[in-house]
Amino acid sequence: MSEETQTGKPGRYQRSFGGLIGSMIVLVLVVLGIVAFRGTFRDTPEYQPPDIDYREMVVSIQQLGLEPVYPPRLPDGWSVKDASFDSGNRPAVDMVFTTDDERTAGVHQEDESERALLGTYVGDGVRENGDTLTTPVGTWTGWDDTDTDHAWTTEVGDDTVLVYSSGDPEALRAFVESLTTEPLQP
Q1: Where are its TM segments located (predicted)?
Q2: Which end of the chain is more exposed for a tag (fewer CB within 10 A), N or C?
Q3: CA 46/CA 160 separation, integer angstroms
C-alpha cells in the first residue's frame, strides 16, 4: 500500500475574526431570547413582608423585669421592619421601622456608651445639635450627622436609648415624644 499525500486546503471551515464576532452575536441573541421567553411565562409573586408584633416582644421583655422603651402605637404610614431582643449578658432591644416617606427609623436600647451607639447606628460625622427634649422617658439629647441622619439619646437605668432616622427630623421628634416604658398587658 502506498501512502497518498493530500494537497490543498484542509477540510475545515475558514476561521476569521469576523466569523468569531458573528457567532458571538448569534449566541448572545439566543441567550437573550431564552431569557425573554422564560420571563414571559414566569409569574413572580409580590413579596409581602411578615407582620412583626413588636408589642408582643415588649411584653416578653417586661416580664423578664427589664424596662424597654417603645412606641405605644406607630405613626400613620409607619410599619415594623424588624424587631429583636438579645438576652445575653448585656441585653439589647432593637426595633426598626419604615416611615411614611419610605425611610428607616429605629429604636436601640443597650448597656453601651452613647458614642458607641451613635457611631454604629448614625455614623462617624455625628455631632450634638443643641436640641434637648424632656419626656416621661427622660431628657433626650439631639444629634445630626453630615448625611442628614438625625438621632436622639437618653439614659434609662444603665441603658442608653438611641432613636435614629434618615427621614424628617420633625417626624422623628414627634416619634421620640410618643415613646414610653409603661407596662403592657399580655
Answers
A1: 17-37
A2: N
A3: 38
CA–CA separation, 152 and 141 (whole Å): 5
Tell me if 185 is assigned to some domain.
Answer: no
Rounded to whole angstroms, the Cα distance separating 63 from 69 reads 14
The DSSP secondary-structure symbol of 137 reads S
> Is residue 98 included in any domain, yes or no?
yes
Quote the strand ranges of 116-180, DSSP E.
Answer: 127-134, 139-144, 150-156, 159-165
134-180: pLDDT as tens digits: 999 999 999 999 888 999 999 999 999 999 999 899 999 999 999 99
| Helix or strand run (H / E) with residue 157 | none
Sequence-ordered strand ranges (E) for 66-135: 79-86, 92-98, 104-110, 127-134
Contact of 105 with 164, CB cutoff 8 Å: yes
CB 132 within 8 Å of CB 139: yes
The count of structural domains within the chain is 2
* Largest CA-CA distance found in the chain, in angstroms, rounded: 109
49-55's contacts with Cβ under 8 Å and 24+ in sequence apart are 49/81, 51/80, 52/80, 52/81, 52/82, 52/83, 53/80, 53/83, 54/80, 54/83, 54/95, 55/184
Q: What type of residue sits at position 142?
A: G
